[in-house]
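@channel sequence for tomorrow's demo:
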Amino acid sequence: MTATDVGSPRTESTPVVRRERTISKAEGWRRRGPLLPAMVFAIVVTQIPFLFTLYYSTQSWNLVRPGSREFNWLNNYVDVFRDSQFRQVALNTVIMIVGTVIISVVLGLLLALLLDRKFIGRSLVRTLLITPFLITPVAGALIWKTTMFDPVFGLINFALSPFGVDQIDWVSRFPLAAVMTNLVWQWTPFMMLLILAGLQSMPKDIAEAARVDGAGPFALFRELTLPHLRRFIELGAVLGAIYLINTFDAVYMMTSGGPGVASSNLPFYIYQRAFLGFDIGQAAAMGVVTVVATIVVSTLALRLIFKSFSGNEEAA
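C-alpha cells (generated this afternoon):
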C-alpha cells in the first residue's frame, strides 16, 4: 500500500439503506385521539339528523292532521318532482347561485387587480372593501332592504333621481335581483381576497420577461395572469356556490320568498313547507333531494379543482 493509496478517496459506492418507520396501532390511535371528539360531534349534529330526515321523507306526516302519519314508501319524492313550485324554486336557486358567483368573481377579479398595484391609501381601501364580508348576513339584508332599496328613503332612488327615477320599490318589482344584489355585495370581498392571494403568489420575473419581449398589458393578463388565477377562481366559485345554496337569511329578511315564489330558494321553500304548511314528510323529501344534488355537484367540482391543482404541481 502506497501513500497515495491512503489519501485517495474510495471509488466504491456505499449502498444507502432506507429504513421505513412503521407506526403501531397504538401510536396511530394516539395521533388520531385528539380528532375523535370533533368527529363524534360532527356525526351527532350532521349525520344523525340526516338519518332522521331520510326516515321522515318516507312518512306521510302532516301536523295539521293528527293521526295521519303512515309509511308511504317513496311517494313524497314523486310528489316533490311533480310539484311545479318546487321546480320553479329550484330554478330560482340555480339562477341565484350562478348569477351571484359569476358577478362576484368578475368584480372580485377587478378589485384584486386594483389592489395588486401600489397607490396611496391602498391599506385603507382594502380594509373598506373587506368590510361587507364581515357584516352579519341578517344585518346586511336589512341594510339593503331599508337603506338602499326603500322606495321613499332609499339611497338607490336618491342617486337615480336626477335621471328621472322616482320612488321605485325595487324589492317588490325585482325581488330575485334585489336578493342577488345583497349576496353579490357580501361575497365579492371573499372572491377579491382569494384572487388577490393568487396574484401575489404569481412569479414576477415571468411577467417582467414578457414585458421585455414586448407583451402588452392585455396579452400579459390573457396569457399569464388569467391561467395562473384559474385554480383560485375555480376554488372561490365552488366554495361560494356551496355556501350560497344554504342561503336563507337574505331571502327571509328581504322578500320572504315573494311575491309568490318569485324570489324563494330551496332552503326557504323547505322551511315554508315544514313550518308553515306543517307537511313534514314532503319537506324532508325536499331536503334529501337538495342534499343529494349538492353533494353530487360539489363532488364533481372539487374533483376538477383538485385535478387542476395536481396538474399545476406536476408541471412545476
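heads up for whoever presents: The mean pLDDT is 86.
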